[in-house]
Amino acid sequence: MSRLSTNQLSLAYGSRQIVQELNLRVPDGLITALVGANGSGKSTILKSMARILLPVQGGVYLDGKLIHRQPTKEVAKQLAILPQNPSAPEGLTVRELVSFGRYPHQKGFGNLNGEDNRMIEWALQATGMSAFSDRPVDQLSGGQRQRAWIAMALAQGTEVLLLDEPTTFLDMAHQMEVMTLLEKLNRDQQRTIIMVVHDLNHASRYAQHLVALKDGTVLYEGEPTVVMTSRMLREVFNIDADVIPDPRTGAPLCLPYGLAEDHQETATDTLVLGGNFSQEHHGNNRVKAMA
Question: Which ranges carry the ABC transporter domain (predicted)?
Answer without folding.
Answer: 4-240
